[in-house]
């Protein structure tokens, strides 16, 4: 292990600088320091803390933040003791931040991109939503892609699968004779609003008018397919009265969960709720399915992972990269963002993500070696640093110096030294360059 104190990586300093520059003072009071009275953001606090820890001369920090010495002094006094919490979640490197790095940050002025990343986090569901000729019950059993020994993994997979199906059957496109049904009573339409909010959060658009309905005893909707919300709330009489050809239930695969949890000694009797075990839960789920299948032909389908049938990209920001699941595809708005995101993932999650070969070769050539990224010997990395990061060199563009500096941190992760190149694990997450204009918010 290295005795060199780790510092915030250059790729994070770039992102923090970009956010900081986007916040300007409402009224300029100083031509020399135009941001002296601008609102402070968490990102600017992080940038100030990182450069102070480096340490970087305060005159350079003032020039980068465009604030006065007095502004910095007052802010440090207000944030005393907060440095650890501010910097803990940022990617760390043992490569020291230098005044030349700060000069690069001051010169860097890329075009602002509203949504730099989009995550395509799954595959379309194979579940059929069209009507059957006979009364049919489709039972969709959801499993996590990588079971981790926690019951919540199966419950989360079922919720993700149900939400994906709800977005599919209630969207404006396609046939309208299908939708989501939830059972009355629904006091103040609270459940209706929650379901519509869930669909809109996933698709980025409101559910179709009439696509989510409350069922009460009486005539059923003129649908051929109904996705059921909260199937345990339906009585046997309500189920018999529901006149829809195809009914879809989405449930956690309780039998699969019981098998996995029983294999781990510490989870053999893991309670679901007070007085109930996983085995009890699996038996109750079987009774529930039997009740729904009273006069219907049962078709059982099993799915795993987090589906994404609507095909929209999920919105991802820099902070989210440290917890992004290592599956699916991360679409980046341009090649520079892809490079920065790759190094960010390496330093926060310890994984090496797949990227297009053409880009890999291009970035490797920036460092003067035709080798795979992350395999460059440290002595060659030092030579590359001297050759490419010298701000006085007239032959190397600013963009190349910034990209090379970002890459160098991947050879100096937290815990590495000159004789120790950390081997990163390979990731199932793919990186690509494409349009991120159509993204949707999925929460954190």
For the termini, the CA-CA separation is 33 Å
Helix share, percent: 25-40%
Question: How much β-strand is present in the residues?
Answer: 15-25%
Number of strands: 16
The tally of helices reads 15
Identify the overall geometry.
Answer: elongated
Alpha-carbon Rg, integer: 27 Å
Query: What does the main sheet amount to?
Result: 6 strands, mixed
Structure class: alpha/beta
Description:
The chain is an alpha/beta fold. The protein is 38% helix and 16% strand. The chain has 15 helices and 16 strands. It has helices at 10-21, 42-53, 58-65, 69-78, 83-87, 99-107, 151-169, 190-203, 236-241, 254-263, 278-292, 335-349, 357-366, 378-388, 398-408, and strands spanning 7-8, 92-93, 117-120, 136-143, 178-183, 212-215, 225-228, 246-252, 271-273, 276-277, 297-304, 313-316, 329-332, 351-354, 425-433, 439-440. Strands 14-15-13-3-12-16 form a six-stranded mixed beta sheet. Strand 9 and strand 10 form a beta hairpin. Helix 7 crosses helix 8. It is elongated and about 80 Å long.
Question: What is the structure about, briefly put?
Answer:
It contains 15 helices and 16 strands. With 444 residues, the chain is an alpha/beta fold. Helix 1 packs across helix 2 (42-53), helix 3 runs parallel beside helix 6 (99-107) and helix 10 runs antiparallel to helix 11 (278-292).
